[in-house]
Amino acid sequence: MADKRKYVIPGDVITSGPFRPEQNVVLEGNNIIATSVGISEIYEDSVKVIPLTGKYIPKINDLVIGKVISHTSLSWELDVNSCYVGFLPAQDVFGRDFSTHADELSSKLKTGDLVAARIANFDRTRDPLITISDRDLGKIDDGILVKISPSKVPRLIGKKGSMIQMIEMGTNAAITIGQNGWVVISCETEEGLSKAKKAVEMVNEKAHIANLTDLIKDMLDGKDES
Amino acid sequence: MGGRDATMVLLDENGIRCDGRKIDEPRRIMIKAGGLKNADGSAYIEFGDNKILVGVFGPRDVHPKHMSNTDTGILRVRYHMEPFSVGERKRPAPSRREIEISKVIKEALEPAVMLEKFPRTAVDVFIEVLQADGGTRCAALTAASVALADAGIPMRDMVAAIASGKVADTIILDVNNEEDQAGQADMPVGYMPSLKKITLLQLDGVLTPEEYKKCVDVGVKGCEVVYELQKKALHDKYFGDRKD
User: Fold this and answer.
1) Mean pLDDT score, A5-19
2) CATH code assigned at A30
3) What DSSP element (H or E) covers B77?
4) Which domains does chain B have, with CATH numbers?
5) Whether A14 and A86 share a structural domain
6) Residue A67's domain is classified under what CATH number?
7) Is 70 exceeded by the pLDDT of residue B4?
8) Cβ of A12 under 8 Å from any chain B Cβ?
9) Residue A58 lies in a domain
10) Domain-located, residue A57
């Protein structure tokens, strides 16, 4: 798709002409300028930069892993590894007949619990609204949390999920990746768990290496023999 | 202040300055992006004998809450000199000069950083001067831009900075400590080379209108040299082992 990929840093002119600026680029006069360190991609009518660094900025419909920080009588607050706290209303969990008298929020989610959630709504005027009422969403009961850089999440997933599938197959672990860079790994065997954790951390550290897939594969296979 | 002789000749008949440089030659500059693990972004610069470390945090929650702005993010800069950064011990409390430089650097960075993308948050820049030798505000601004880019904060362009000045009736580039003390004028210039915009311009001394124009031109040209080094520092960190 992308006909021209380039390494850019803020201020670099990627191209000029009638292109639509997308993520991490701005239009200055006729030039399209990168605003982040990353890799630029020019499509038929648009230009974007895939960032290599930076914090997680919530986006509607992203799957994220959140950690409960606190709750009021109406809602929970979740840490979603961003500059904003996630807001999870109680109705979302208890349903429409939620009442502040009858239902106690801490009976469902306690401080410190991990949840798989989706960003339901977010704009610049409000903190991100989070929902867990969907299939595969909700409280995470077992597994370990591994934190990676949010900008390396696409690398961990791989092309059409190739990387994550390979790790899951090699270790028999179930891996949930939040777009915010938090990853939950659960596995029945201790060995598979530590191996999957190692693989995820390896992707985080060596995300820029070209034949990373082979490296991970070697690592997963190598452990099998020993 | 420093160990060098203050009565030395600032510019000899061959156009060589007190530290052996030509009139349009900057000092040796080395910039390194990254290096601090706990900061979101960081940079280290050696600008002649200046040694400065910068750490950037954010965007993050604003504390105290009343400082936050619902329309845009805020930028907070702290410029601080270590007690051992100068010849005689500097008291560690923020001085009048440090408060001013913090403000000046903040205002020089603001046009570059796209804070409006992060309403209700703060970006904190911490500048620690480990060793000072004249022109620390320019060096600090240069390093702060690299650290902000390293933190992944969206920027329209990076700000490069260098001082130009007037010594022995000649316009020179990159004023060092002796030239600053004994020279006739000192003009720090901060410049965004891709956008061709000046974000910092100060002047201490007296210049004629012609000298003023020349001084700005010399400064802007110097910034373009610094800009290439900033780009190189980021390229080395992020694309060092890749082929372009």
Assistant:
1) 89
2) 2.40.50.100
3) strand B74-81
4) 29-239 (3.30.230.70)
5) no
6) 2.40.50.140
7) no
8) yes
9) no
10) no
A26-83 per-position pLDDT tens digit: 998 889 999 999 888 888 888 988 888 888 889 899 999 999 999 888 889 999 988 8
- Residues A122, A109, single domain; the answer is yes
Looking at the complex, does the CB of residue A7 fall below 8 Å from at least one CB of chain B?
yes
- Whether residue A56 is contained in a domain is answered as no
Report d(CA A29, CA A15) in Å as an integer.
12
CATH label of the domain that carries residue A204: 3.30.1370.10
Are A81 and A129 in the same domain? yes
Nearest to A83 among B59, B194, B235 (CB): B59
Residue keyed to tokens 């969990």? A93
pLDDT at B33 over 70: yes
Which of these three, A114, A140, A166, is where a domain ends? A140
Placement of tokens 């607050």 in the chain: A77
pLDDT at A64: 94
| Strand locations in B82-239 (E) | 121-131, 160-167, 170-173, 185-192, 197-201, 204-205
Residues A123 and A149 in one domain: no
Give ipTM to 2 decimals: 0.84
Q: Determine the structural domain holding residue A157 and report its residue range.
A: 144-225
* Inter-axis angle of helices B96-109 and B136-150, nearest 10: 50
Mind listing the pLDDT tens digit for each residue in A169-201? 888 889 999 999 999 999 888 888 998 999 999
Kindly state the tokens that stand for B200: 């910092």
Closest Cα in chain B, distance from residue A111 (Å):
20
A163 occurs within a structural domain: yes
Residues of chain B with Cβ-Cβ distance to A10 below 8 Å are: 112, 149, 154-158
d(CA B33, CA A53): 12
Q: Do B156 and A54 touch (CB under 8 A)?
A: no
Strand order in A20-21's β-sheet?
Answer: A4-8, A38-42, A46-51, A20-21
Give the domain-ending residue among A140, A175, A194. Answer: A140
